[in-house]
Amino acid sequence: MELLLLGLVAALVWKLYQLKRSPHDGPLRSVTLCLFCAALSYPVAMPGGASGVDTVAGHGTAKLIQNVLLLLTVYFLMSFYLYSAADEKAGRRRARREAVVVGAVALAITVAAESVPHEVFAGSFSTADMTIPQLAFFYGGAGLYLTYALGMAYRWTRRYARMSRRPHSTGLWMTAVALGAMAVACAIRAVIVAVRWADVDVPHPLMAAVAFLLVASILLFAAGITYSGARARISSLRLWLRHRRDHRRLAPLWELLAEAYPENVLRPASPAALDRWRARGVHRRYHRRIVECRDGLVDISPYLLDEDDSAVLGIDSTELAARLRRASARIGEGVPAPRRAVPLAMALGSDRQSDVKQLIAVSDALRDAA
């Protein structure tokens, strides 16, 4: 149960972050409310939370709150698809109609719960006396609505998964499988309610298996709806780590060139605190260092070319590092530039990634020599 709640909270935090960036996104708001209701229902279902609520409000209140929250969970899940429909107005009208349906179901199970003594809710689903009509209606009615809503969500999710490409389709298929499994579990629970209402015993292992299926499918659902975003965050983290590493590897080359040409070192756009904070970002520092290194190489190029060199330099990193050290020493001695500055063509290619690899190779050669 704790693992399930942790997964739901993690998914909810991620969606709250996205909602903060896009507060007017209707489908995103529906998913966030769906996760919020789901996450809120589990503390109420836990023994400690349920006993606390029942102590204050009477036996059965915790179960009633939990089931109403679950109804709202699947309603908001349906709303996500309705708000995402191509016909936005029709989707909104359907969402309002579904709100009336879920409101009616919630009211009906509330009336059923209030019409019997609170003591009948003291047990769990597996131990409840389903021969009491109100109790059977309470569990059966909620289960049938959950089956309907989850089944509709499964059908829509499967449709979107077929239309999507990876990695989005992977997350959608995970979500579709989870929704289908939840719908099946809820349908089985509804059948169990009907069987027990007829005063027929149901094997406990079967009810335990259904409960396990619900827990596993909810975890898979949380993983599915966060898969694409989590994968994007992982890719972003990998890029951040690579830029951070390359920024450090470029330090020897940058230090040599910055000492020779300090005017090439770029400054923040303004002395404002916000601009100074932005300038300290890893990606900004990485790209700024590349620009500063390339500018410095252009400025130092007159000292790098021998008399028999052409205007384009295509030598290996070790030789270029040696020439840079000699050029830096000549600049420190005040030797004037022997010729005009020229762009340097790197040996690994002319595209940006090859350029960066060459700069890192030269910087590594400088570090090794030092």
How would you describe what is shown here?
The structure is a single chain. The chain is mainly alpha-helical and 370 residues long. The chain is 76% helix and 0% strand. It is elongated.
Strand content: under 5%
Alpha-beta classification: mainly alpha
Relative helix content: over 70%
Shape: elongated
Mean pLDDT over the residues: 79
The biggest sheet, with number of strands, parallel, antiparallel or mixed sense and barrel status, is: none
Instruction: Please give the radius of gyration in angstroms.
Output: 32 Å
Number of strands: 0
> What is the count of helical runs?
13
Order of helices and strands: HHHHHHHHHHHHH
Spans with pLDDT under 50 lasting ≥5 residues? 308-312
Distance between the termini: 57 Å
Concise summary:
With 370 residues, the chain is mainly α.
Topology:
Layout (H helix, E strand, L loop, with lengths): L1 H20 L4 H20 L1 H11 L3 H23 L4 H27 L18 H31 L4 H30 L6 H46 L1 H10 L12 H7 L2 H23 L12 H16 L19 H18 L1
Helix pairs in contact: 1-2, 1-8, 2-4, 4-5, 4-6, 5-6, 6-7, 7-8, 8-11, 9-11, 9-13, 12-13
Structural key phrases:
single chain, 370 residues, mainly alpha, 13 helices
